[in-house]
Structures are given as structure tokens and as C-alpha cells.
Amino acid sequence: MATKVLSAELARERAWRVYCLMNPSAQRQIKLKARLDSYLATLQTIDSNSLTVHGLKYLKRLETLGAEKSEQHR
Length: 74
Known about the structure:
With 74 residues, the chain is mainly α. The chain has helices at residues 2-22, 30-42, 48-72.
């Protein structure tokens, strides 16, 4: 259990840092980081590298959904 927690924490930090490098404005979005934490907690994968990739894919998917919503409101 402790291994999964450490892997999830490492993955969260890696995914968040990489995402913020790609999208500097994300650093101000505390709710987005909380959503990433919640998402990673639901995954069964113990490998931190896999969790990092899943976390980045999740953040990108949220970004895409946000862009689609913005387009619909125009």
C-alpha cells in the first residue's frame, strides 16, 4: 500500500511539472491539480512511470474538453 502511495505522489509531481512546462498558466489552477490527484488515486497501476503517463493524458483530455466547451459558447 505504501508503495502505491509513493508511486502516485511521484507520478503526480512528474505529471504536474511536465504539464506546467507545456502550459505555464496551469500553475495557477489549483483545482486542476486536485482533479489530477483524485484521478491518479483511482488507478490500480503501481508503476510510477505508467501513472505519470496516465496523468498527463488525463490533463490533456481535460484541456481538450475545456477548449471544446469554449468553442461551443461562441
